[in-house]
Amino acid sequence: MVSLPDSAGDAAGPGRACRLLLFTLLLSLSCGPARAQAGFPLVMRDDRGIPVRMDVAPRRVVSLAPNLTEIVYLLGQEEKLAGVTRYCNYPPRAASLPRVGGIVDPDVEKIVAAEPDLVLCTTDGNPKERIRVLEEMGIPCFAVGPQDMAAVFRTIERIGALLGAPGRGVREASALRVRAERASRARLDPPPRVLFVVSTSPMIAAGSGTFLDELVRASGGRNAADGFAGRYPRLSVEDLLAASPDVIFVAAMTGVEGFPPSVSRWTEVPAFRTGDVVTLDGDLVTRPGPRMVAALETVAEALSAWKERTPAARETKGVTR
């Protein structure tokens, strides 16, 4: 607390003026708004290339994607959440937040009623026309679309700055980078052929350039689907036999069950023959948010366990692919 200078007995003059100036300076430093200290006003370009201006840290935020909601919680800013999508289910506390529709069908009226100072949205999931309506109403919308793990870490830092928690954003992103680097140190020789399936009927796998492809490669494996066209190629049984995966990961989501007997009976597929079919939480491995590192650690552990169970001499026994 800054005390007023005692002017009793002071004569008017330069000395008294200096003391008053010093008092004014100390008062402004001690009582200035915390938001200004956090770097506001702030202008940041989102992943659309659009500059988003925040004069002060937002008090009310709407999140239009589960990964963005998870980032807000990671940053310790969850008290600012005034609305989320029906799919925002992690952490479990997010289930009690007001709903403003889905990812592809956000409800503009509910979003406006939430009176947000900022809307966090995605470039490849939320309808552009609805985001445009919100922006035309004067609501700042910051859109992101991280395409790899490094971009996820940068997104955490950027959202941290937007929410007035830049230091927390840098710390959390740095901690995740360290964990990801540690999980990526494994080198499997020979690298197992890994198929990451996001649907079992029809069979759809994650191809090159996807997050799941990055998880496989960073964990020391080879993506068995990288020879097929498209980011998420649809595979026939013949394609599966040609891919010959040693390990199959299934991203378990609603409607994604185990392989039907008409597929799993093909024991020519090494993973079916040895039972190396691993089911993982679909939300964990498909959301480009903080838990992608936990997904990487889980995949790395599974492939390391496969290595321990697999004879080192398999390549020298005439088993080549």
Indicate the topology.
Elements: H1 14-31, H2 34-37, E1 42-45, E2 51-54, E3 61-63, H3 66-74, E4 81-83, H4 108-113, E5 118-122, H5 128-136, E6 141-144, H6 149-162, H7 166-183, E7 193-200, E8 203-205, H8 211-218, E9 222-223, E10 234-235, H9 237-243, E11 247-252, H10 261-264, H11 270-274, E12 277-281, H12 282-286, H13 292-309
Parallel strand pairs: 3-4, 3-5, 5-6, 7-9, 7-11, 11-12
Antiparallel strand pairs: 1-2, 7-8, 8-10
What does this structure look like?
Mean pLDDT is 88; it is low at 1-12, 20-38 and 313-321. Helix content is 39%, strand content 15%. The protein has 321 residues and is an alpha/beta fold. The chain has helices at residues 14-31, 34-37, 66-74, 108-113, 128-136, 149-162, 166-183, 211-218, 237-243, 261-264, 270-274, 282-286, 292-309; strands at 42-45, 51-54, 61-63, 81-83, 118-122, 141-144, 193-200, 203-205, 222-223, 234-235, 247-252, 277-281. Strands 7, 8, 9, 10, 11 and 12 form a six-stranded mixed beta sheet that branches. The chain is elongated, with a radius of gyration of 26 Å. Helix 6 (149-162) packs antiparallel against helix 7 (166-183) and helix 7 (166-183) runs parallel beside helix 13. 36% of the residues are buried. The protein folds into two domains: 42-182, Nitrogenase molybdenum iron protein domain (Rossmann fold); 187-317, Nitrogenase molybdenum iron protein domain (Rossmann fold, 3-Layer(aba) Sandwich).
